[in-house]
């Protein structure tokens, strides 16, 4: 087995746990008596922690091997979950939400440790395979989320009577996922050491070029708006379905599971294309469809139509996620790939931090659909900036003339 399949297996396992959590975490908090505002702040605390740690991990990933960093991430994810199982005080929910990303991480992502994953991929493959490899990796995570989401649809209806026990079960699933990932990563660590032994990064302390800075600034600005669009809608979408249509977690779980599966299929199809300009044009088109779907989503009075629009929006938004991620690594020279990933991920996260809390405030005032309209507006602005990035930077990426590793 090579490193890439192990990283994809990691994504798949994390995705299963994340699929369960994105469906059940907020409804469980609701049944435990948490207000929409407090639940939104709990999610925002996790987004804030991920944002801050991502900035540090990117710099470290440029100078250190990625696998040990990923192992540290799994340990950090499972530790607060263990403490909550030992002591059920609500403060441990807050801590677990912050450190483990409960209910807000998706795509099988290792959260703030993603730069380590992406630099490991970049160091072990040829550049021409980067877009397809990252898309395949994302498809594995989305497939796991589909399984987690669909499995949640078939849990006993009596689960809502015991929200605390349900929450403990979710955290046990997180712990099991982390333990399995640590086992796999130990094997990947040996492979990584063999694969990159003797390689050195040219000029590891060299500054960014002006063109690289401009490209990253455009990407970060587009991502900030993109992240706010997602943050105000995605982490709390199960709550929106519950408030708008009075649907239970089982029904919502089925909808989300199908949406994850559709996104995984989109990502897998994109991975089969190898010309990066075609991939980026597809990303622009899919993001446009996602914006239209989100704008239309509050309009139907039918639960079925709202679900269909959500599934289309989710697949169009999440499916090309690997393309945007790979793009960040292409905008700079290889020795700055970790930092570029940090900029990419933290710019997505910094605005998303405020999304769940903002949505909770609108819901408290009875403005259930307002967050979705705001998300669509932010999505339009993000798309405009991404088009500018494509025309001014992507057509002439700074790393294009560099030799493949």
TrEMBL record:
Q: Name one Pfam family in it.
A: MFS_1
Quote the SUPFAM superfamilies the UniProt record gives: MFS general substrate transporter
Ordered alphabetically, the record's keywords are:
Membrane, Transmembrane, Transmembrane helix
- Per its UniProt entry, which superkingdom is the organism in? Bacteria
User: InterPro entries from the xrefs?
Assistant: MFS (IPR011701), MFS_trans_sf (IPR036259)
Residues annotated as transmembrane:
12-33, 39-58, 130-155, 167-185, 215-232, 252-271, 278-297, 342-364, 370-390
Alphabetically, the GO molecular function entries are:
transmembrane transporter activity
Q: What is this protein called?
A: Putative major facilitator superfamily transporter
Q: Which species is the source of this protein?
A: Leptospirillum ferrooxidans (strain C2-3)
